[in-house]
Amino acid sequence: MTTRILSSTTSDPLTSSTNLTRRPRRLRRSEGIRTLVRETVVRPEDLIYPLFVVPQSRATAPIGSMPGVLQMRVRDAVDAARRAYDSGIRAVLLFGLPESKDGIGSSSWDPAGPVQLAIEGIKRHVPDMAVLADVCLCEYTDHGHCGVIVDRNGVKDVDNDQTLPLLMKQAISFAAAGADFVAPSDMMDGRIGAIRRALDERGLSEVGIVAYSAKFASGFYGPFREAAESAPQFGDRRTYQMDPANAREALREVELDVEEGADIVMVKPALSYLDVIRQVRDRFPLPIAAYNVSGEYSMVKAAAERGWIDGPRVMNEILTSIKRAGADLIITYHAMEFAESYR
Ligand code: PBG
After folding, report:
1. What is the residue-averaged pLDDT of the chain?
2. How far is the CA of 232 from the centre of ligand 1 (A)?
3. What is the band of 2 on the pLDDT scale with cuts at 50, 70, 90?
4. Is the CB of 240 under 6 A from ligand 1?
């Protein structure tokens, strides 16, 4: 009786298994097979390691909101670049904290500034490391904005065209110190063309430009502003950085930077903008960088510290997702940790 009921309500196991002919799980059966069919692999060479450089008057110190990231004296930055190179990283991105600030960021073109000295030191001691220098005024201005402030009938605004010559001076100074690339992150209109012409006129035509082309006005920059001491003292950056809602406008920004002479274009931040990375990848042939920014890093660190997520696993997943979206290069504070755990 029991047997008869069973055989009438369940199908023959042999018949049911032959009905199922598509079995994607075959490609996931072992780590060996998974490795064989893996589509996206992040390598240390894909990563760009950001370094914050302080003047000699200050000490190397940790950044509270970015566990594992330091503000470094020049000597420590050179040592960090050496260790990064030995771990397989091939590029660093330098940010500077100057001795003094003013309205126009003039300390940024001081040939003895922290970034200039770090460029010279890294190129002398780790010559094959590609050195990128972030070009922007916000770390060097007392008001913390990325350009010159003008007062138009009582309303303060960042003036685009008065800012360009200052960015040109800064870029020339970093290039003359030996930077391989300058990376303008200010989002002024026309800066790529202006910097390209300025470099070429000084005989620095071999120095490249990594353009922060689609840089969004983002809450994810919070911890960076502690690291670089560059928070705006009034207002925000929405009149120059992009509205997070706009992807078509991002393509327009990339198009202009390519026309003006960018060698590499960037989307920033990365994680909330993976669709923008993909669209840029599908339309432009040149290398694309994505910036896995400070807030994206700090969220992982904070949750991992509380035991809420597995930090290294989430790091790998995040970096893989950015590359899968279409980025060739990823600027990330995880770079050293990733490279040291690679293989
Ligand atoms: C400078 C600059 C910023 C970042 C890179 N360059 C901050 C900003 O625009 O406010 C952000 C990097 C990060 O959050 O990791 N303009």
Report:
1. 95
2. 11
3. very low
4. no
CB 138 less than 6 A from any atom of ligand 1: yes
* Interval between CA 220 and ligand 1 midpoint (Å): 9
The stretch 302-309 carries a mean pLDDT of 98
Alpha helices in the chain (DSSP H): 2-9, 13-19, 31-36, 74-86, 114-125, 160-177, 191-201, 222-227, 248-260, 274-283, 294-305, 311-325, 335-341
224 lines ligand 1 (CB under 6 A): yes
Is residue 215 among the annotated active site residues? yes
Q: Which pLDDT tens digit goes with each residue over 107-165?
A: 999 999 999 999 999 999 999 999 999 999 999 999 999 999 999 999 999 999 999 99
Question: For residue 108, what pLDDT is reported?
Answer: 98
Rounded distance from Cα 15 to ligand 1 centre (Å): 61
With CA atoms as reference, report the closest residue to 130 among 173, 182, 87: 182
Token pair belonging to 257? 């930077």
Give the predicted TM-score (pTM) of the model. 0.94
CA–CA separation, 333 vs 322, rounded Å?
14
Q: Could you give the CA distance from residue 111 to residue 102 in angstroms, rounded to a whole number?
A: 17
The DSSP output letter for 205 is T
Four-way CATH pick for 41-342: 3.20.20.70, 3.90.1150.10, 3.50.50.60, 3.90.1300.10: 3.20.20.70
Atom 2, ligand 1: residue with shortest CA distance: 185
CA of 247 to the centre of ligand 1 (A): 20
Alpha carbon nearest to ligand 1 atom 6, residue: 185
Write out pLDDT tens, residues 188-199.
999 999 999 999
**Residue ranges of domains in the chain:** 41-342
